[in-house]
Amino acid sequence: MKKLKASLLTTLTWLLVLGFFFPVGWMFLNSFKSENDAASIVPKIFFNVDLASFQRLSERGMGDYLLHSLASSVSSTILVILLAVPAAYALSIRPIKKVQDALSFFISTRFMPAAASILPLYMIFKTLHILDNISALTLVYAAMNLPIAVWMMRSFFSEVPHEIVEAAQIDGANFRTEITRVVLPIVIPGIAAVALICFIFSWNEYFLATLLTSNNAKTTPPFLASFVDGRGLFLSVLSAASTVAALPVMIAGWVAQKQLVRGLAMGAVK
Amino acid sequence: MTSITPVELKARHSKIAKKNVWLSRSLILPALVFGIVLTQIPFLVTIYFSMLRWNLLMPGQIGFAWFKNYETVFTSGDLIPSLAATVGITTAAVLLSLACGLIFALLLDRKFRGQALARTLVITPFLIMPAAASLIWKYSMFDTGIGVINWAVTSLGFQPIAWSTDYPMATVIIVLTWQFTPFMMLILLAGLQSQSKEVLEAASVDGAGPIRTFQWMTLPHLRQYIEISVLLGTIMLLQVFDPVAIMTKGTGGTKTLAYLLYERAFIGLDVGQAAAYGVVTVVLTLIVATIALKTLFKVFMAGGNR
Fold first, then answer.
1. Measured between CB atoms, which of A40, A84, A250 is closest to B124?
2. Is-contact B271 B54, C-beta < 8 A?
3. Which of A90, A119, A227 sits opposite B49 (nearest CB)?
4. What's the distance, CA A61 to chain centroid?
5. Residue B55 CB burial class (10 angstroms; 0-12, 13-18, ≥19)
6. Residue B242 contacts by C-beta under 8 Å, 6 or more apart in sequence?
7. Count of structural domains within chain A
8. Which positions in chain A touch B128 (Cβ < 8 Å)?
9. Is residue A136 part of a domain?
10. Which residue, A161, A270, A143, is CA-closest to B191?
11. Cα(B171)–Cα(B14) distance, rounded to whole angstroms?
12. Which of A240, A254, B197, B289 is deepest in the core (most CB within 10 A)?
């Protein structure tokens, strides 16, 4: 009886999981169909594999958009980490007065919609001629992710036992030794988790990318959105484009699941 | 290390303390300055812009309009529906994804065959690019001709449903719920797994059924995780733009504040008015968020504070 109940529950779980995953799996399948098969009114589960859609993507220049996405995501992530790690270190290991003020300031900037600052930034970037340029995206993505990064990093740093740091300081360890020998080894996985999350947010970002780029620095999400006006049959090529766009983050997320969970849950609870 | 006297130790301590203050400030400064330059100062400039009469189509006629733009914002009749759309979509998506996330978290917390694979599949919608998710749902799921959902609906003998035109609100909420369920699930699952197994076993030995155990032990334990996931979900969803822009273009009561601002500024080309909308959006968001922040910090202070 108990066994039956357990296997029923497992079956139910799998049904729900597969149903939930279905749109992604369907996107996968559609990307390998011919346009006619993809547009079939009765959904086709069995079909002849047709790679034409992927070919059409490279004809439409998707490679460039992927490169722009990669460049802006990687550079903004590096910038965020460079800024957030020292700040989080100061906030948690060497707390100063009004730490909470600085912290709440950081978090409150995340509550502020992009709407608040995007118009002046747009004008400034236009004047500086870096509109439609990767560096503009890098800056705004870094600003967008900084609060969350500081917040999560702080919780990873507070995992470093206070006594160890103090002992090292008393023993006369200089700042560099303290960082490289004592603190960094403990927080490296945390930094990786935060970097991954910042990368995902930047890679997937659509609103700012639409506003700040047009041709030279257009990233993948606005390119995908341009399919909305597509004429004729386009489901297969759209699915192929979505698959290619989503795959890097999906694989990174699958591989680094543990870090991802830790980053989210730690930042959240600690 | 040679032995040191207590007096020396105290001296070292105070020296370190002095150095610490200086060091801490210089470590936090770059991030602080960066944040101020890219978010706070532009916001002040937005307030200034909102006082201007400035339309990009008429570049020669820039001048002070004072509160004219705000008058337009409050009298044009766009603001209230937009606020309602934002709050409605956010609330519905947060609650639904929380419910779905809790169900998945409970189901995935058990040991069963392929547990790791199942979890991997469930978190995928959170990883997928939101623009891609909106497009995939719009065309391969909801489309009246080629959408799978409508194929299922018609196979059951019903009329196909034109989701994104007839039920735009539901369409946007379904897609957002799908995207945010994994996020809620991850946080709640972390909460479930931090629950002490012994206590649960003791409860079951004492004859508490699964429902009572859930109600009296698991739910109170999950409370702070639920609060956090609701707050973080709210922050992200209040600024929602992608599915609105891609699936409905703001029709049928789905014109959120973010989309309204985009429309005003980058389609309407009226900088002054868009800035006024921006300022009002920020104020409204901050009101909603302050309530959230207060709760957040309550949990935060009780948690990992040194």
1. A250
2. yes
3. A119
4. 23
5. middle
6. A206, A207, A221, B130, B131, B134
7. 1
8. 24, 242, 246, 249-250
9. yes
10. A270
11. 62
12. A240
Q: Is there a domain that residue A25 lies in?
A: no
Q: Which domain holds residue A202?
A: 61-269
Residue A76: CATH number of its domain: 1.10.3720.10
Task: Name the token pair of A237.
Answer: 């090529």
**DSSP string of B38-94?**
IIIHHHHHHHHHTTEE-BTT-GGG-EE-TTHHHHHHHHSS-HHHHHHHHHHHHHHHH
pLDDT, tens digit, 9 for 90 and up, residues A115-163 = 778 888 888 888 888 888 899 999 999 998 898 888 888 878 877 777 7
Q: Which of residues 66-85 of B touch A (CB under 8 A)?
A: none
Specify the CATH architecture of the domain B70-302: Orthogonal Bundle (1.10)
Q: Is residue A205 part of a domain?
A: yes
Residue A173 forms part of a structural domain: yes
Residue B154 in tokens: 């018609």
Work out whether strand B63-64 and strand B52-53 pair parallel, antiparallel, or are unpaired: antiparallel
DSSP class of B130 = H
What ipTM was estimated for this complex?
A: 0.86
Query: A9-47, pLDDT tens digit by residue?
Result: 899 999 999 999 999 999 999 888 888 788 777 787 788
DSSP assignment of A192-241 equals HHHHHHHHHHHHH--HHHHHH-SSTT--HHHHHHGGGG--S--HHHHHHH
